[in-house]
Amino acid sequence: MSEVELEVPLNHDSIDGIVAPSANPALVGHAGAASFLARSYQSGQLHHALLLEGPQGIGKATLAFHLAGHMLKHARAGEAPLVLAQPDFSVAPYRQIATGTHPSVLHITRPVDAKTGKFKTAITIDEVRRVTHFLNRTAHDGAWRIVIVDPADDMNRNAANALLKTLEEPPKKTLFILVSHSSGRLLPTIRSRCQSVRLDPLSQQELPAALAAISLDVDAAQMDGLVAQANGSVRKAALLLAFGGLEIARATEEIIGSGRFDVPKAQALAGVLSGRDSEIQYELFLEDIFARLSNRARLAAEQGDLAQANRWSQLWQEMQAEADEAAAFNLDRKQTVLIFLERMHGAQS
Fold first, then answer.
1. What is the mean pLDDT of residues 224-238?
2. What are the start-end ranges of the E strands in 54-144?
3. Closest residue by Cα to residue 262 from 205, 186, 344
4. What's the CATH code, domain 21-198?
């Protein structure tokens, strides 16, 4: 398959140099889910609304676009193979799906705010209204019409209620694919109208293969760190590489693991994480801190030390509340980092 230059629209979660799900030819892992969907389509038993659930960045959206391409390539479901077709961007339909121009595929995600030029913080009702217009058009060549909402968790209340009405009475040959990182945020009525397909994080063997598939240059030392910290998420691994996440984690470990609390080192790290353009680095720091707390709580529980498990769990809850408060009131990130480092250091002593 020859490589083809694709002009893929940017989304709110796009990462420079990382291929978008719509243009990703490789689906690593999730063989069971892919096989189930292929069998369901061939047998005519595919539910009209799928909820692809699992952590962010593990391939849910990629699977959604692969399924869309498979169904449009094999319009006669009964003759479709039991393996999802691999996208071939040298042919027009797959190029159109990747670039968002295929008449039978609608990708709903957070839109750009025309006033600020930045992506909105939610999927709005105006975006969901596009679904109605899309479905009211005559289907292209009588083919399926496929709506991908990515992620569905980002819909605000009005948008979710508007989508619910369409889910209740969908037109024939229409498939909704809702991508969800945290399905608890969805309306229960939406979840009840979808068939859940749960996707697990990539394994320690699958993550390197997924990174190689999107041409990320990772050396052996980095790969060990990514496997340990990315939690099976290609997106998390890419962010760790692009924004110094591995270095942040090492600096954090040096500070909280030392015999005494090194104030100058802590201040230096806090300074880096509180810069004007360091929001992603700051989020990676918080994710690392909360992962450490969760791991300690789980390890203590596995060892039967319920008092210690409860102590780490309580600390996780307290610090999560503090992080939420800092975000809500736009508090000084530098002070938050210093407080968290000191609390983690003290908790280990």
1. 93
2. 105-108
3. 344
4. 3.40.50.300
Omega before residue 81 within 30° of 0, cis:
no
Residue located via tokens 């990174």: 211
Phi, psi of 86 (to 5 degrees): -80, 130
Q: How many helices (H) and strands (E) does the chain have?
A: 14, 5
CA proximity to 61, closest of 103, 95, 11, 101: 11
Residues 304-323: pLDDT tens digits?
999 999 999 999 999 999 99
Helix (H, G, I), strand (E, B) or coil at 139: coil
> Can the peptide bond before residue 264 be classed as cis, meaning omega within 30 degrees of 0?
no
Contact predicate 159/132, CB 8 Å: no
Contact 115, 123 (CB under 8 A): no
Report domain extents, the chain.
Answer: 21-198, 243-348
- How far is residue 237's CA from residue 245's CA, in Å, rounded to a whole number? 9
Residue with tokens 């924004």, as numbered in its chain:
243
The packing angle between helices 220-229 and 206-213, to 10°, is 120
In this predicted model, what pLDDT tens digit does every residue of 135-193 receive, in sequence order?
988 666 678 999 999 999 999 999 999 999 999 988 999 999 999 999 999 999 999 99
- What the block records as the tokens of 83 is 């393996």
The torsion region of residue 15 among left (phi > 0), alpha (psi -120 to 50) and beta comes to: beta
How crowded is residue 238: how many other Cβ atoms within 10 Å of its Cβ?
A: 22
Residue 225 contacts residue 247 (beta carbons within 8 Å):
no
In order of 67, 263, 292, 346, the CA distances from 260 in angstroms are 54, 9, 19, 9
Q: Which three-class secondary structure state does DSSP give residue 67?
A: helix
Report how far apart, in Å, the C-alpha atoms of 68 and of each of 12, 117, 243, 255 are.
22, 30, 32, 48
DSSP code for 90: T
Output helix, strand, coil percentages for the chain, rounded to the nearest 5.
Answer: 55, 10, 35
Report how far apart, in Å, the C-alpha atoms of 119 and of each of 11, 97, 176 are. 8, 22, 23
When computed from its CA atoms, the radius of gyration of the chain, rounded to whole angstroms, is 22
| Phi, psi (degrees; rounded to nearest 5) at 144 | -65, 150
Q: Which DSSP state fits 201?
A: P
